[in-house]
Amino acid sequence: MLTYIPATARHHAAPVQWLSSYFLFSFADYHDKDNMQFGPLRVFNDDTIAPNSGFPQHPHSDMEIITLVLSGEVTHEDTMGNRAVIKKGEVQRMTAGTGLAHGERNETDEELRIYQLWFIPNQKGLSPSYEQKDVDFLDSKNELIPLVSGQKVLEDVVFMNSNSTVYWANLNAEKTITFKTFPIRNTFIYVRQGTIYVNGSEIGPSDQARLSDEHVVEIRAEKDAQFILIDLPASEANF
Question: Which domains are present in the chain?
């Protein structure tokens, strides 16, 4: 089963002058009891942050927080003592666990674009931790590149405490990718640019496809396209 969610269904938030954010799930002032999560994927925010601005230090707990930098760079600082710059094509994972605080700033003169994803961890009370990796995912071609995973069959990716995997694809026009899955898994797709067909359904820029009870997900690009695909457990017992 495929559920198509158009770009217009996203919640747009601009709470401060320097931030423009699109919420794909209930978050902050946006609440929809029918759109709280998809498997363990609890938050997906598509953020644009103006130059020389950003989020002051704020707390988190019991959440796996993934940041993908699409353009620009973000300066991270947290109460674990980490201070790092995450650049375009890099991936960051922060396990909030028993609790920490962090700040995220765009300290450059250029606009910053990020996707930030929050996953419900597979256990509570984990020790806070941090990982960052240059995956260079924006330059890949015609394949699904794993970025972050808690599935131990995948190597050389950022680890997270969730039975999930985040993939990225840059798919040229008329090319096809086939992703094999199981009825006990969910698949989430969000298109950055271009147009794709997911099991025959057209998905355009900033549209979503949420799939369940599928064996195969076939993705064909009508135009050159970039998209994120997330493989998720369908049952809370498998988070």
Answer: 2-238 (2.60.120.10)
